[in-house]
Specification:
Length: 333
């Protein structure tokens, strides 16, 4: 029982799980009946990000399912594409002040690779007590993320965490419905050599500044080498990047796009990570992954749909101690 929420956390976990699995299963069936060209049609520009047909389709179901949940407990849904600022109190007519909790959701994090059936996306969500507009990522008490598989996959992960109670993971068989518990173990490596470490740069905008930073970082961290010592994975999904850190596949992920855009004097903040993209950082934290902002501090972004978020993830404390001083010095002097 959390003193900050009116019900036991198991209530929120169970309802959130139902929401996640219904959305995932619906989208999996829908994608198998659609041509990728249909899913990839531009729907509209929501101000924070381009919305494609696949996004719009799932957002409609998300709102319907949240309306069902709100009959039991009033809350504020925070999501891209809903209203001007993304805050949507439910049931309709409820004031923000009377909401029992806040639910921030990214229905499809990784739209672009999923809509072309290239790679999994992730359904991300987090619940926090209602402190109004002052609520931040630090207030999140429950986080959940569910893999949205391509049509070629039959296995998908489902992971969640309650603050202070550790993280949990399952593997779901999309064909048989079987569910098996599994364990996620971040890398225990003490160096980045012969592992995956990525500076996030999925779009042309901002690449020049990021590449210059990255090149200097690797020159000082690794020195000269004929053979590649580090590999990168430009997974176009923040939730996917977090999962790679959680599962031991990646050792470092640095999303410094807000720093790069500011340095270049360009205003392309919609092309950055937003709070809904990184709302499941609690799961990584519960596994021991080190997630910080671009100054080495905890993430304190407000629960909204516009704030640009830069973040750095280290698979363990040893990697953070070894590489954080260098990276921050190169960024800030």
């Amino acid at each position: 029982m959390s003193l900050l929420l009116s019900r036991d956390l198991s209530f929120y976990q169970n309802r959130l799980r139902q929401l996640h699995l219904r959305l995932r299963d619906h989208l999996y069936r829908y994608m198998r009946m659609q041509n990728p060209a249909v899913l990839a049609q531009v729907s509209h520009d929501a101000g924070g990000d381009t919305q494609y047909a696949i996004d719009t389709h799932l957002e409609t179901l998300l709102i319907d399912l949240c309306r069902e949940w709100a009959r039991e407990a009033p809350f504020v849904l925070i999501a891209e594409g809903i209203g001007e600022d993304g805050w949507y109190p439910l049931p309709e007519g409820t004031s923000v002040r009377d909401a029992e909790f806040l639910l921030i959701v990214d229905p499809i994090d990784g739209t672009r690779p999923l809509m072309y059936d290239k790679r999994s996306a992730w359904l991300l969500s987090a619940i926090a007590p209602n402190f109004g507009r002052e609520t931040t990522l630090e207030h999140v008490l429950l986080a959940m993320q569910t893999e949205l598989p391509t049509t070629r996959q039959y296995l998908a992960y489902h992971v969640w965490a309650i603050r202070g109670q550790g993280a949990h993971a399952e593997v779901h068989n999309m064909l048989t419905g079987e569910i098996h518990p599994t364990v996620l173990t971040p890398s225990r490596a003490e160096t980045l050599e012969h592992g995956f470490a990525t500076f996030v740069k999925p779009f042309p905008e901002g690449k020049r500044a990021i590449v210059e930073l990255e090149a200097e970082f690797w020159a000082q961290a690794l020195g000269e080498s004929i053979n590649p010592l580090v590999f990168e994975d430009q997974y176009a999904s923040t939730g996917g990047q977090l999962f790679e850190l959680m599962s031991g596949r990646d050792r470092l992920v640095a999303d410094v796009r807000p720093w790069a855009f500011t340095r270049m004097g360009v205003s392309v903040m919609p092309l950055t990570c937003h709070p809904y993209d990184i709302c499941t950082a609690l799961i990584a934290h519960e596994l021991g992954v080190q997630i910080t902002d671009l100054h080495g501090e905890p993430l304190r972004a407000p629960l909204d749909i516009r704030t640009p978020v830069g973040w750095i993830g280290y698979a363990n404390t040893s990697l953070r101690r070894r590489y954080e001083p260098l990276l921050l010095r190169l960024m800030w002097g």
